[in-house]
Amino acid sequence: VRLHTSYQLRALTLYLAVSLVDRYLASLQSKPSWLKQIVKRHILLAAAMLSIASKFEDEAVPEYASLQEMSKGEFNIQDLHTTELQVLAQLDYHLHLPLAPHHLHWLLEVVEADAYQRSVAEYVCEVGLESPELPKWMPMDHAAAAVVLARMILNVPEWTPELEACCGVATDEGKRGSVMQALFGICRALYTIGPGHAVYEKYCADGLAQKIQSTVKEVTGQCSA
Q: Which CATH number fits domain 100-224: 3.40.190.10, 3.30.1330.90, 3.40.50.150, 1.10.472.10?
């Protein structure tokens, strides 16, 4: 998140980078020696994923030399290039999937969210990237959970008929359960961040993060259970 913020990249770039990390590590479960080696060099992996994602989603692409400098010598430029190629080969160049922000934008249109509700939803959605449960969530469930939680925080009805229809919960209560599981995961992640955390600092300039953190425990206390 700090790298992403430093380069002022698009939100989709961050979500794609995290998705690539999850998918890449999952693909290495059958290769424990590879997995152990790459996890040891997590800074290199993060830089490689951000580089790949920015090339796919962003106009501004961080230069290798800049990423190497930001790492404070954790890797060299050849390491970064080699890791990118390994990741692309391992994923067979299948990079793009619908991500939570794609669904989030649509769902916020559905509920006719104002600018502040959009900001709250974007914040809690990004906090969800900090959850260890993230790989279990479908992107639609992640986005829907962010919208519902934002509406809870703002003390407006969490669900509208239109939102229920778009998320599939109107005809499938099991789907509602999936959304709520993601919501609980986001809540638990919210309790772990504060001043100094990269996501918090990203949204604290206009007081948004502070306001949310000061109310979320009161509004969603049941989520910590």
A: 1.10.472.10
- Residue 125 is predicted with a pLDDT of 95
Domain 1-91 fold is Cyclin A; domain 1 (1.10.472)
Q: How far apart are CA 146 and CA 121, in angstroms?
A: 5
- Tell me the per-residue pLDDT of 155-164, one tens digit each, with 9 for 90 and over: 899 999 999 9
Measured CA to CA in angstroms, residue 53 lies from 9, 72, 86, 116, 159 at distances of: 10, 21, 15, 28, 33
CA angle 136, 108, 56 (to 5 degrees): 60
C-alpha distances (whole Å) from 194 to each of 7, 91, 167, 199, 201 are 22, 34, 30, 9, 8
* Beta-carbon contacts of residue 52 (< 8 Å; ≥ 6 apart): 17, 20, 84, 87, 88, 95
As a whole number of angstroms, the distance between CA 71 and CA 79 comes to 12
Predicted local confidence at residue 177, as pLDDT: 92
Q: What does the pLDDT look like over 37-93, one tens digit per residue?
A: 666 678 888 889 888 888 888 777 888 888 888 877 788 899 889 999 988 888 888
Which residues fall within 8 angstroms of residue 48, CB to CB, at 6 or more apart?
A: 80, 83, 84, 87
Kindly list the domain boundaries of the chain, sorted by start residue. Answer: 1-91, 100-224
Q: SS3 of 168, please?
A: coil
How many CB atoms are closer than 10 A to CB 179?
27
